[in-house]
Write a structure and sequence with these properties.
The structure is a single chain. This protein is of the alpha/beta class and about 230 residues long. The protein has one domain. It has ten helices and seven strands. The strands form two sheets. Strands 5-2-1-6-7 form a five-stranded parallel sheet, with helices on both faces. A two-stranded antiparallel sheet has the order 3-4. It is globular, with a radius of gyration of 18 Å.
């Protein structure tokens, strides 16, 4: 059983889907604290514009209050702007009409929390990318009193994981202890993602865009490109 775990990001980048695609089960870390810093993608991501790249940021309430993703509430003053910007910069992309109506409908729904928004979007992207990995929320299987590295180990043991795919970001590298995994018979796999190039609008290729950039430009080819 190959397992990976990640926070529920908004309109994630390609590497996020690469990790899911390589897993038998992907655990959505929905009950971990929403980061207070700026260097995260829990409620934002990039789209490409005719001049460069631009953030799309979901407005949330009380983001500095140490609440988890599945409690952080969404404001109601950002949806129209996201839809407008996506349409403005992708309406002439080859596969825009194939994906935009459903994407618009999902963005404009009412959600109780940020995690619900991100998970519904993730399910749609996995469906159109034909990625069959099982999804499960950490809040469904892990008691709230288990935190940090112990929480990851609990989830992996609960799922009978034999392999764990981890990112190579500073956060992951800081808390992952490979010896602990070895002692528990779980193989640790570091994800080293080489970002592919693909057909993109507006001149020179820019990597690390949201998954919507790939889908609007490459459509069904997106799965193989990832």
């Amino acid at each position: 059983m190959i397992v990976s775990i990640h926070q529920p990001n908004y309109l994630p980048w390609l590497g996020y889907f690469d990790k899911i695609k390589k897993s038998d089960c992907f655990v959505i870390f929905d009950d971990v604290q929403f980061p207070r810093g700026k260097n995260h993608f829990g409620h934002r991501n990039y789209i490409k514009t005719n001049t460069d790249k631009k953030w799309l940021t979901v407005s949330v309430r009380d983001k500095s209050s140490l609440k988890p993703f599945n409690v952080i509430e969404i404001s109601d003053n950002w949806q129209d702007e996201h839809v407008r910007l996506i349409e403005a910069f992708y309406s002439k992309a080859p596969y825009f009409t194939q994906y935009f109506p459903k994407l618009k409908e999902l963005i404009c729904r009412e959600y109780c929390c940020l995690s619900d928004l991100n998970v519904e979007l993730l399910k749609y992207f996995l469906e159109v990318l034909n990625i069959k990995t099982k999804l499960i929320k950490s809040s469904e299987i892990c008691p709230p009193d288990i935190a940090g590295f112990d929480r990851i180990l609990y989830i992996l043991e609960k799922l009978n994981a034999t392999k764990y795919i981890s990112g190579t970001g500073p956060g992951s590298m800081r808390y992952i202890d490979e010896e602990v995994f070895n002692a528990k018979g779980i193989e640790l796999i570091w994800q080293h993602y080489d970002h592919p190039t693909y057909s993109q609008q507006y001149g020179e290729f820019i990597p690390y865009m949201s998954i919507v950039d790939l889908l609007f430009n490459e459509g069904p080819n997106g799965t193989d490109i990832i």
